[in-house]
Design a protein that fits this description.
The protein has helices at residues 19-31, 53-65, 78-86, 100-111, 113-116, 130-136, 147-155, 180-186; strands at 8-10, 92-95, 120-123, 141-144, 159-163, 176-177. The chain is α/β, with parallel strands linked by helices and 199 residues long. β4, α7 (147-155) and β5 form a beta-alpha-beta unit. α1 (19-31) crosses α2 (53-65). It is globular and about 55 Å long. The mean pLDDT is 94. The structure holds magnesium ion. The site of magnesium ion (MG) has 7 residues, from loops.
C-alpha cells in the first residue's frame, strides 16, 4: 500500500488527539477517580467503566467544548507526520464532533497555523455518515479508531485503516495502523518517494 498525502483523511479523537489521556487525567484530577488506560476497552467508555454517567458526560463535554483548556495532547508522532504531509498537500479531518471552532483552534495551536492554513475540517456531529463527506472530498483512504465507522467506509468503497486502540483490537478484519510512524511508512510523495518524517 502506498498513499499520497492528498488522498488520505483522518478522524481526530483517539487518532490525532489523545482523548483518552485527557479523560483519564481529568477523572483523576477533578473527581479523584483512577482509570487505567487498559480498562478502556469500549468506545463508549460507560460500557466498560463503573463511573457515574453524569461524570463521564461532564468530562467529555469539557473535552468537546474546550480542548485547549483541557490541555489535550496530540497522539505520539502525529504532529511531525501531519506537518510533513501539509508541505505536500492540504490536510483533511472528518470528526464526529458537533462543533468545529474549538477543535480547529486546538489544531491551529498544535500543528501550527502554517500546516492548518489550507486544511479542511468537517465536524459532522454524528458517528455515522462519514463516507459521504470523505467521497465528496475526493479521498481514497481514511484513518479512524472506531471500527464500526471503518467497516461502513469499507462498504462505501473507501480504504479504511483502523487506528489500533484497545476498543477495536481483534474486532475487525480491516487493515490497521498502530502508530503515526506506521502511517508515515504508508505515505509517498507523488514521484513515489517515501515521506521523510523527523520525530
Ligand atoms: Mg475517533
Amino acid at each position: 500500500m502506498s498513499i499520497h498525502p492528498s488522498a488520505i483523511g483522518f478522524d481526530l479523537d483517539c487518532v490525532v488527539v489523545d482523548t483518552m489521556e485527557a479523560f483519564i487525567r481529568l477523572a483523576r484530577e477533578d473527581y479523584q477517580l483512577e482509570v487505567l488506560p487498559e480498562e478502556i476497552t469500549e468506545f463508549q467508555v460507560e460500557e466498560c467503566l463503573t463511573i457515574d454517567q453524569g461524570i463521564i458526560d461532564a468530562i467529555f463535554k469539557r473535552l468537546l467544548d474546550d480542548p485547549l483548556a483541557s490541555k489535550m495532547q496530540p497522539m505520539p508522532g502525529a504532529v511531525s507526520v501531519l506537518r510533513e504531509m501539509a508541505t505536500i498537500a492540504p490536510l483533511t479531518f472528518v470528526t464526529a464532533r458537533p462543533d468545529s471552532a474549538a477543535i480547529s483552534a486546538w489544531l491551529n495551536r498544535t500543528l501550527g497555523a502554517d500546516a492548518c492554513a489550507a486544511s479542511t475540517l468537517v465536524a459532522m456531529g454524528d458517528h455515522d455518515g462519514k463516507g459521504k463527506h470523505i467521497k465528496e472530498l475526493g479521498l481514497s483512504h481514511f484513518v479512524d479508531d472506531r471500527f464500526e465507522t471503518c467497516e461502513r467506509l469499507h462498504c462505501d468503497g473507501i480504504h479504511a485503516l483502523v487506528f489500533e486502540q484497545p476498543w477495536n483490537k481483534g474486532r475487525h478484519n480491516l487493515p490497521s495502523v498502530a502508530s503515526w510512524q506506521e502511517i508515515a511508512e504508508l505515505l509517498t510523495t507523488v514521484d513515489g518517494c517515501q515521506l521523510s518524517v523527523t520525530s
